[in-house]
Amino acid sequence: MGEKITLSVIKADVGSLAGHHMPHPDQLAAATKVLAEAKRKGLIIDFHVTHVGDDIQLIMTHKKGPDHPDIHGLAWQAFQEATKVAKELGLYAAGQDLLSEAFSGNVRGLGPGVAEIEFEERPSEPVITFHADKTEPGAFNLPMFKIFADPFNTAGLVIDPRMHEGFEFEIFDVFEGKAVRMKAPEEIYDILALIGTPGRYVIRKVFRRSDGLQAAVVSIERLNLIAGKYVGKDDPVAIVRAQHGLPAVGEILEAFAFPHLVAGWMRGSHHGPLMPVPQRYARITRFDGPPRIIALGWQIKNGRLIGPADLFDDVAFDETRRLAQFITEYMRRHGPFMPHRLGPEEMEYTTLPQVLEKLKDRFKKVAEAPKGVHKEKSEML
Ligand code: F6R
Ligand code: MG
Ligand code: MG
To answer: For ligand 1, what atom is nearest to the CA of residue 54?
Structure first.
């Protein structure tokens, strides 16, 4: 049995250039310097620093396991250095995701998003890291379900004996802080009953049932809930292991060929299509979007990160992007109307209470209103 390697993807928005567009290269350089020093000292084996939209992405390998204070402390330090640069250059929203001044051993719950997975390296270990901007962790529900439970997406579920028993999903309730494990294919209707509400029930981990091997992990931070107020959308990251008895790289990417509607986009308060893009287009423009995702392909060898391959940089995704533009146009035409604008309970901020307060004396009972409309308190604030 080989030694265990941990792959940690930790991301944060600590300020950016031209509004919420993208980090400044000097911020990436500052974060890189911190991680390079940690690699030299042997704390981490390897690393890669990149960005998607305004989020800095730290991809690291090490032997310390998930949730380790040294690794989380390192990420915190990298984000602090990038924040210093943001402050010096007067970048926008400098340090926005570093919710606490004092680091206390773990970045979970402080602001940064985290996806970590520990595994024994297979003789060849292909892994994809996904990084999205202007959306939420539940945006991965639909593609993760397709990858690990939908035989129309993943042929291996039907024809690869190592996957034929199916996968187990750990689904996290972001409001209650509780998780439940559910089995596919037997429980797929119940699974869908939960994950069809992606703002609340989020696929967090996926395991192969034949041997319990962990195949995927998604970050579950929801910044708005952590802070108790709007502090920026909780742009998610995910890790998916591929091949050799797991979904093939092509089966994993296939799940993103449909640009499904996700919550996020402008002011974290709108539905829009999730557009898969190459790294060079990983910066938001139109209406601060549309929401974007990149896929980086790696081989991990003795903890070394070999790659990345920029997996959505291919004409095979041109039609997906074109459809996403079409949907962008269609959704934008709704302006301030739902379902383009999120429902009141999902919006990051709203002026509705002030508007209602201002109008409270002007709202009059209507005598001829049909029965049943005079609820004590409207559920549809
Ligand atoms: C959404 C996001 C942006 C901002 C918008 C307004 O996650 O980051 O869409 O919400 O640009 O930003 P402020 O209020 O900072 O001017
Ligand atoms: Mg931002
Ligand atoms: Mg962002």
So the answer is: 8
